[in-house]
Amino acid sequence: MTTQDGVEFVFIAEAGILEAQAVLLCESIRRFAGNHASAPITVVSPRSRRSPSQSAQRKLTQLGAEYLPLEIDSCCPDYGTSYRVHSLAAIERRPGPPVIVQLDSDTIFLGEPDFSTNCDLAARPVDMKGMCTAGDGDPLDGYWHKLCALAGVDYEKLPFVETTVDGLSVRASYNGGLVAAKRGCGIFQRTEEVFRRLVAEKLMPWPAGPTVMTGTGLLGGAATVYWGTSQAAIAVAVVAGNHPVQLLPATYNVPLHLIDPMEVPQSAQWKHVHYHWLFSQAASGANPMLCETFALPPETRDWLSSRLPLNY
Predict the structure, then answer these.
(1) Domain of 227: which CATH number?
(2) Are 11 and 104 in contact (CB under 8 A)?
C-alpha cells in the first residue's frame, strides 16, 4: 500500500449523536492528521429518513468534506453497522485516491497516521475475543468453520492475532474502527459479498442478541444478533483474495472505554482513538482523556475540552 497519491477517509453521519461525532472526526483530521490533514473526506448518509441536520451538513462542507447522501437498502437493517459495510463497498466502486480509510464516527485523530505499507490492508485486531475463535475446542469455532465454508475460504488460512485488550490468541478478526485498504483490491466489495451471504444464511454468532454499549447507545436483541460479523467478514474477505495484512501499532484505534486512566501507555504518542460513548454528556465525568494524569499535550487537551461533551 502506498499513500504517495493520497488517501480518502470515509465514515457515516446520521441524525443525532452520529452527526456530532462525524463533525468532531472531520475537525480532528484537519487539525492533527499531518500530511493527511487535507486529504479527501467522504461522509456518507446512508438513509434519507435519518439524514443529519442542515447545520451538521454545513459544518461538514465548511471542513472540506464531501457529504454524500445515499439510499442504501441494507440486507440486515436492524444491525446498524451493516450500513457501513454497504457504504464502503459503494465508495470503493467510485474513482478516488488509491487508499480508502474506513473509520467509525466515534473516533478521532490525535497525530499523523502512517498508512505506508506494501500490504493491501492495514488494521488493528479486535479489542476483545467476543465472537472470535481461539481454535479447536472453542465454543464459536464451529461458527467460523461455517463462515469460511460459506465464503469459499480455507479455515486454516485464517491467521492468528492477539486481541488488543484481553491479549488472547484468536483467528483473525479486525477492528472496524479503522481499516485502511487499497481501493483497487476490492476488499470492501468482497466484504459486502461475504456479509450478504452470512445474513442470507442466518449465520448469527449471537442468537439471543447480547446487550452492547456503543457510541450510539445501548443496543440489544435484533440489533446485536450479528454483532461482530462486519469485522469477521473483512477477515474472511482478505483471505479469500489472498491479500497481505499489516497489523497497525497499538497507538491506532485505541479503545478508550477499556483504558485504565492510571495505566495509560504512551498516550502522548497516540495517533487515533476510539472513544465509543465517552464523549457524550452522560459519560463526560468518566472520560479519561480529560484527566490531569492523562499525558495529552496541553494544546490537544484544550482543543478537545472546548468541544466536549458532544451536543446533538
Answers:
(1) 3.90.550.10
(2) yes
- Please give the tally of structural domains in the chain: 1
Residue indicated by cell numbers 483497487 = 184
What is the span of the domain harbouring residue 212? Answer: 7-305
Amino acid identity of residue 13, one-letter, is A
How many whole angstroms separate alpha carbon 56 and alpha carbon 264?
33
Q: Which positions ≥6 away from 54 have C-beta within 8 Å?
A: none
% of the chain exceeding 90 in pLDDT: 81
Single-letter residue type at 21: Q
Nearest C-alpha neighbor of 29 from the set 15, 43, 17, 18: 43
Instruction: Report the alpha-carbon distance of residue 161 to residue 134 in Å, rounded.
Output: 10
Q: The cell 467522504 sits on which residue?
A: 42
Q: What is the pLDDT of residues 122-145, one digit of tens each?
A: 999 999 999 999 999 999 999 999
Task: Identify whether 125 is preceded by a cis peptide bond (ω within 30 of 0).
Answer: no
What is the gyration radius of the CA atoms in the chain, in angstroms? 18
Rounded to two decimals, what is the model's pTM? 0.95
Task: Give domain status of residue 1, yes or no.
Answer: no
pLDDT in tens, 231-277: 999 999 999 999 999 999 999 999 999 887 545 556 768 999 999 99
Instruction: Return phi, psi of residue 107, to 5°.
Output: -135, 160
